[in-house]
Amino acid sequence: MDTKKEELYFVHNTPVPETPAPGQKPEPWQQTQMVGQRRARVDGYERVSGTAAYPSDVILPKMLYAAILRCPHPHATVKKVDTSAAVKMPGVHAVISGMTPATNPVWNYRTWEGHLKKSKLFDPHCRFEGDTVAAVAAETPYQAQDALRNIDVTYDVLPYVSDYRKALDTGTPNIHAEGNQVGQPQTQERGDVAQGFAEADVVLEETYYTACEIHTPLELHGCLANWDGDRLTVWESTQGVYAVQATIAEVLELPLSKVRVIGHYMGGGFGSKGDTSKYSIIAALLAQKTGRPVKLFLTREETYLATGNRPSSHMTLKAGVKKDGRLTAMEFTAIGASGAYPAGGTSLLDWLIKDLYTCPNVRTHTTDVYINAGPARPFRAPGHPQCAWALEQMMDALAEAIAMDPIKLRLQNIPDFSQARPGNPPYTTTGYKQCLEEGATQFGWQQLRKKYAANKKDGNWLRGVGVAGSSWFLGNGFGPATIILKLYADGSVNLNMGASDIGTGTKTIMAMVVAEELGIKPEAIQIEHADTGTTQFASVSGGSKTVPTEAPAVRDAAITVKRRLLEMAAEDLKSKPTDLSLKNGKVFIKNNPSKAMPITAVAKLKQHHVIVGVGNRGPRPTDKTVIPFAAQFCEVAVNAHTGEVQILRFLGAHDSGRVMNRLTYDNQVFGGITMGIGLATTEKRVLDHNHTGKMVNRSWHEYKLPTSMDVPADMQSVPIEIPDDVANTTGAKGLGEPVTIPTAAVVANAIYNATGIRVTETPVNAVQLSQLLAQHRKEG
Amino acid sequence: MAKNKKPHRGKGVTRREFMTNVSAGAVAVAAAGTLGAKDAEATAVIKPEDMVTIDLQINQRRHRLLVEPRWSLLFVIREKLGLTATKFGCERGECGSCTVLVNDVPLYACMMLAMEAQDLKITTLEGLMQGEALGPVQKAFLEQDAYQCGYCTSGQIMAAEGLLRKQPHPSIEEIQTGVSGNLCRCGAYPHIFKAIAQAAKAR
Predict the structure, then answer these.
(1) Alpha helices in A521-661 (DSSP H)
(2) C-beta atoms of B36 and A146 within 8 A
(3) Among A93, A194, A200, A577, which is most exposed with the fewest C-beta within 10 angstroms?
(4) Which CATH class is domain B15-20+47-125?
(5) B33 pLDDT band (50/70/90 cuts)?
(6) Residue A363 covered by a domain
(7) Scanning every residue of chain A, which has its alpha carbon at the shortest distance from the alpha carbon of B27?
(8) From the candidates B148, B174, B176, which should be mutated to test the interface with A, based on the most A CB atoms within 10 A?
(9) How far is CA A304 from CA A695, A699, A700, in A?
(10) In this predicted model, what pLDDT tens digit does every residue of A439-448 receive, in sequence order?
(11) Are the Cβ atoms of B145 and A41 closer than 8 angstroms?
């Protein structure tokens, strides 16, 4: 099951060629010169000067603007689309809909079982509010919106179900012919759970709930499409240009070679720009029909409705522990919603239950359902923050029940092998213990726990501290990954890589890897990337796998170039290549460093003008599994009267293998914590279950992200650096997702420490907490 | 339009202040924005002869343009003048991606009509450059890695620039308030705070 989900999540719709093995496995780095330093980004100038052209910034001559008409009902059938008024509107060049068969191609979606199911670009059966109904291209976005308002659609409005907890009730309308259950409920079991609970000294059970979150990256979803004869070029804000290329080619029946997708910069995705959307097809069709470039970027409201979400989760966890802190059994039952199409509503939701702590007897049962709402999409660590919300609060409660420090309870139950993966492979490395211990020391955990046990009150405020830990199911990268590196005769380097830099600093890290191997400055390296026309295949940047996938391939390419360069220089220096080394742009003889020559003087390089090195990602270890680990800590103050929560400081201790760039590393840690604070305290999609089924809060005014006022300025990153040389040749494990997994649970545990109130439902805000505090006072 | 005319939004420096000022307007926008609404009344259409000539003063250059009265300053800056550092994020005064300085005060360009911006001194991110060299706030953002995807960055820098023009030595609380109208979904806030503190020292 897990392998399948892994595939669904990362390489859906993307053809995967075999990964060639690298020519020679290099030795792990010992002392690095460049890797691990704090380096500002190689593309930082572009980003802060405004010269970076994001896809939404691209302007072409004669360009038109498109807009999409979306179904206003959660469930309806389109009977008729009358575009006669719209086509006559000023500035309008084309209108397409389900009534124009030439521009309504087959659109496949994948069932839970992995089968392709045929639908249409404009499917008359609209299964969610925001499903596509028609589209317009006009000279200005204003005129395109005018035209949308003049399209007359006749709908048969159907009964809906928007509450996922009621999706399987009798009498609810079916969203798909097979009913509202997505595939089969998943049960996984090891050991004897009943026996485990019987052995426990304490058994606790609690129901936890996390609200649905919307990704809302700052750059809107969309693209610009332009035809040059039979060749289509698309500038798209995406996490993976090859995934977009594959879908467009499939839907429009074009050869891959005729579809060029470019995504040099992108303004955030967090998983929501990993999949290809209908808008890319619509833009291409409108561009074809009008013979003009067409820019189609959604409105903010559309991104709330139709570009994915982290589904809400309803989770019940029962857990047993012995007085000495050994976990004896866990039983986890959860329900989540894919939305209107199969989209992993409970994807990876039980992973931490099965894998984070040693526990011989575990049973998990998850059910994924359809509802009439926008389909989910992977959202930074699918399933994991929700599961951590349940598991890590439970660990806190168990620790209290057996009068043990919550860190000690966690330390008692750390496994060194995976209990969830088939065959129980050992972890390549695990730094979970160090994350907890070193994090606790740097945070001042013992002192603060003691202090607040004695006195929590600070005027009207109650203070407390919390901890939570986690892992991420996929720490290593995987192929295919191909890198081409060119060393020019003047010593400068061109790096060619298909992967997108989604804001994590991928490009900078790759330049640092090249600099490390070739002994040149990162500034001498120009990177070409994320363009299917000119760069090599790469999978979607997601799953925290971009660095562990691409960096080893970059290193392989750099080593190939270095080997060739040293062979050339050996002729000039009348030496053997193995006796030579590279530093500061110079080749020198290792045991006689005074005998040196600049790269630019190597005779053969001058003749050839360039050395080209191709690098590949080697295979993953088959007998071990690669997992990043984390522990985070925070301190909160809760107003005892109003329920206001102030998060005073946060600390993240992460084992993600080797630290590649300390500056961007810390930035990731703080960003993950910020996003986790959103899950914990501000974010919640609200659907009107009672009356309309529509989404109520489809804007940043009403769906609140953490602002600069909601995060502590005092955040600390404590890397637990254990280079993982078995995982890959750079020793790096994934970072981008692990950093947001434990955060919400940390906040909840700190609030409990401060108030004695266990908040089981996100978001924890003053509205909820003031009620809970009042109840708490009443109960005394 | 009168010279030295103050922008309509007053000193809507922060998102919070801004929200209290225009909450009624925001509701109206939400209602009008209902997706796929089959509105009974056909939308009024601007004819070419209804377009108006305006003068904009952006980054110390004058631009004379023909615009529809409903075009936002943001739309004109980006799509008509090609100054694309100023970003689209929500087009309803929520995110700050389109923050520009209007008479030295950071404002959302999506919430001002291009017509309203006549005779006001508008500065975009491009206007902070000294030729090809970065300005002090930009340099601090680069060095502190005060961004991730970089999309909200121009707005953050403009908010920071506006803050520092008004308060050259801000406290950490003033810094947090100064960029509170600018969302960063990547969560680079701690580095943004550091960058602004560094820029304050450098200026």
Answers:
(1) 546-573, 603-608
(2) no
(3) A194
(4) alpha beta
(5) very low
(6) no
(7) A701
(8) B148
(9) 9, 7, 9
(10) 999 999 999 9
(11) yes
